[in-house]
Write a structure and sequence with these properties.
Elements: E1 2-6, H1 13-24, E2 28-30, H2 31-40, H3 44-55, H4 61-72, E3 81-84, H5 90-102, E4 109-114, H6 117-133, H7 144-158, H8 160-167, E5 171-175, H9 180-196
Helix pairs in contact: 1-9, 2-3, 4-5
The structure holds adenosine monophosphate.
Adenosine monophosphate is lined by residues 9, 31-32, 35, 52-53, 56-59, 64, 85-86, 88, 92, 141, 150.
Length: 197
Amino acid sequence: MRLILMGPPGAGKGTQAARLTEHFKIPHLSTGDMLRAEVAGNTGIGKKAKTLMDAGNLAPDSMIVDMIEGRISKDDCRGGFILDGFPRNTAQADALSAMLGTKGLALDAAVILDVDDEALLARIERRNEENRKAGRAVRADDTPETLKTRLKAFHAQTRPLVAYYEGKGLLKRVDGMQDVNNVTADLLASLKHRQAS
Ligand code: AMP
């Protein structure tokens, strides 16, 4: 199963990806997590990405595409993977399609988690609160101000991928406003439907 999870910041992609990983026994590849690890390690990539990330803007396509290309070539991705946060724009989607094509592979589905913009701020605030309570670091880009920039980037650059994948017959829509368990159930049902067809 080679799957893309799309949705605005705070839509619950990370939570759902963790559940799908468990279900399908395939890795969850989050470009945001990969970049945060680079930032934490103070690597060259991390240094370049940090300012852009903190401001809520996208990192350069070439950096992300190289990172993903390296990652999906690893052995644990042979049985598939769940992409979370990638692709973020049409150029990245084209690059993904090309890199899979050279390996003789194809995507199975691209899921959009639909969540109203108004619900996202509350969700991000809840995530911050949970992280604080658990003694985990609060993300520098999870502020109301930065969320606005991230949402703008989502609508301008990532949202067009819905039509992109619809055109390829790969799109699955899931109502991300529901209770988290119902979102998982709908997600799994939409993917089963794909497997049966
Ligand atoms: P996320 O954890 O997916 O919300 O990503 C956090 C931040 O990492 C984003 O706001 C971007 O700055 C950067 N980022 C993550 N994935 C990508 C991507 N595919 N392309 C460009 N920037 C990305």
